[in-house]
Amino acid sequence: MAKILYSDYYIPENIVSAEEILFNSNQFRQASNGNDIYESIEKYVKETDLHSIAVGRKDEIVEVLSKLVSKMLDKLDIDKAKIKTIFYTSYEEYIYGGNISVPHYLQEKFEFNDATVVILNQDCSSTIQAIKMANSLNVIEGEFSLIISPYFLSNDEERFIEFTILGDGAGIMLIGDDIDQKGFNIVGSTSASNGRMSVAAYNFDKSSELVDPYYNYLKNKMGTFEAMRRVFAKLVASNEEKFKNANKIIIQNIADNFFNTYYKLYKVPDENFYNNYLGGHIGDVDIIRNFKDFTDKNDFKIGDEIILLAIGSDFMGMNSGAVFLKYF
After folding, report:
1. Which residue from 135, 133, 146, 121 is spatially nearest to 69, judged by alpha carbons?
2. How many structural domains comprise the chain?
3. 196 in a structural domain
4. Within a domain: residue 27?
């Protein structure tokens, strides 16, 4: 049985106020529908609880990830040959400088000679999917999977995406089963997808005479919210007891209003959830950061259970997953 052996993350020291980002966002001004911009900003920040956004530099990604991996190797006495898979959870941050593959560079630099690089494109649920796959792969005692998760926006990219504000950062996790130490074992996982948005868009594009009412809904991105509701309903309904009995459910740093709308639909008590809005929503790095922060700050007894829960969408498709962890 595989366990999470190590986790760490990086968040830029440059913290920008949500107010500043929203004030300079053309998309936020459009979403405000001509209302007073200062009142709109105040209302948004109050409803979402997003205040401070971490803003880094995309050109530092190789240096940041190198430091994270180097720090892990310094802290853990592991045989590099036992790292068999490197899950790199960002297709967008795959290429650096036009002709450099970031994960392959890291593999070669740190001499992970027996590792296969796997690129995931599951958006903000990529870490969850990587943990799920790593658990399936690491059935042989002594083998590891390394998860590397970067999330950096370019200077010209929009950070406001309606229900959250995007920040920058990176994280790593090591999954394996041969270090004799207490920790959180991966005892199960589940996932779900929804492609109704793409079906509606395809039908609309195929014929100008065919107007799918759902596509009009989709154009305002509300279709994404509906897909989220459906995915969460499927995910939670099939594991209802696990969600109710978990000591803590670790989620993404999206926004209070999003949390209230979706997670609370399943009648799980507020205190069961853990996230941290500092830095904004940092893609799939959220799960790594929140797992590390929560486990570093708390003591656990044998049998304690936590759930890692995440969702990812690019407004074309929806992926969500949960990983069930037990401490022993």
Report:
1. 146
2. 2
3. yes
4. no
Q: Residue 218 contacts by C-beta under 8 Å, 6 or more apart in sequence?
A: 197, 200, 201, 224
Please write the tens of the pLDDT for every residue from 175-202.
997 666 788 999 999 888 888 778 777 7
DSSP string, 253-269: ---HHHHHHHGGGGT--
Q: Classify residue 304 as left (phi > 0), alpha (psi -120 to 50) or beta.
A: beta
Which of 123, 146, 176 is where one domain is finished?
A: 176
Contacts of 298 (CB under 8 A, 6+ apart): none
Tell me the residue type at 39. Answer: E
pTM over 0.70? The answer is yes
244-276 pLDDT per residue, tens = 788 999 999 987 666 666 566 566 677 788 988
Residues 268 and 218 in one domain: yes
Taking the C-alpha atoms of residue 79 and residue 129, their distance in angstroms, rounded to an integer, is 25
Helix axes 285-297, 126-137, angle to 10 degrees: 70
In a domain, residue 44? The reply is no
